[in-house]
Amino acid sequence: MSVSVKSPFGQFTVDTTSPAIRQLASVLGLLIALGAILLVPGAMITEPVPAWTGVVIVVALAGAAFLVPWDTAPPCTRLLLPMASMLALGLFRAGTGGALSMFTSLILLPLIFIATEPGRRAIWCAIGTLLVTLAIPYLIGTAPWNDPQILRIVFTPLVFAVIASVINEMSHRARVQVESARLYADERERRLLEVQASEKAREVATRELRASEAFNRSVWNAAVHEIAIVTELDGTIVAWGPGARNLLGPTSSEVVGTRNVTEFLSEVSASAIRGEGDEDEDGNRLLRRLVEIAGCNEQAGTLVELVRTEDEPMPALMTCAPRKTPDGETVGHIFIAYDMTPVNEASRLKDEFVGTISHELRTPLSSILGYLELARDEESGPLNDEQRHYLDVAERNANRLLSLVGDLLFVAQVDAGKVPMEFSPVRLGEVVRLSLETALPSAAQASVEVVGEAGGEDVVLAGDAMRLGQAIDNLISNAVKFTPEGGVVRVGVRRDGNEVVVYVSDTGMGIPEEEMHRLFTKFFRATTATKQAVPGVGLGLNITLAIVKAHGGRLEASSTVGSGTTFEMHLPLSAR
Question: CATH for 223-339?
Answer without folding.
Answer: 3.30.450.20
